[in-house]
């Protein structure tokens, strides 16, 4: 089920974007909205929202990957606490 949701959401957006803009479009949304030559293609508020959503996505990814490390440390520390009680 999870892979079907990923397939439907990400790949459908990728295929429709490729059909709409061709393969010459840039993959970085900030480079698309803020070209080096010429004015920006979006208002400042939209660019601010894009930056906020990118930071939220990075924060969520960090939380997901840090959960494994926290779980390993928690198991290690809890095993130390059990061994301390066995020694006393």
Provide an overview of this structure.
It is a single chain. By secondary structure, the chain is mainly α. It folds into two domains: 37 residues, no CATH class; 47 residues. Helices cover 78% and strands 0% of the residues. It is built from three helices and no strands. It is elongated. The model has no long low-confidence stretch (mean pLDDT 80). This is Amino acid transporter transmembrane domain-containing protein. Keywords: Membrane, Transmembrane, Transmembrane helix.
Q: Which properties best describe this structure?
A:
mainly alpha, 2 domains, elongated, 88 residues
Helix and strand topology:
Blueprint: H1 2-21, H2 29-33, H3 44-87
Can you describe this structure in just a few lines?
It comes from Citrus clementina. This protein folds into two domains: about 1-35, no CATH class; about 40-88.
Low-confidence stretches: none
Structural category: mainly alpha
Q: How many domain modules?
A: 2
Strand content: under 5%
Transmembrane segments: 44-68
Protein name: Amino acid transporter transmembrane domain-containing protein
Keywords: Membrane, Transmembrane, Transmembrane helix
């Amino acid at each position: 089920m999870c892979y079907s949701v990923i397939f439907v959401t990400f790949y459908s957006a990728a295929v429709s974007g490729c059909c709409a803009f061709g393969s010459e479009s840039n993959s970085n949304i900030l480079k698309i909205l803020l070209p080096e030559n010429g004015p920006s293609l979006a208002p400042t508020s939209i660019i601010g929202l894009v930056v906020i959503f990118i930071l939220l996505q990075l924060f969520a990814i960090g939380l997901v990957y840090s959960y494994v490390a926290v779980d390993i440390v928690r198991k290690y520390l809890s095993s130390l606490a059990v061994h301390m009680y066995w020694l006393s």
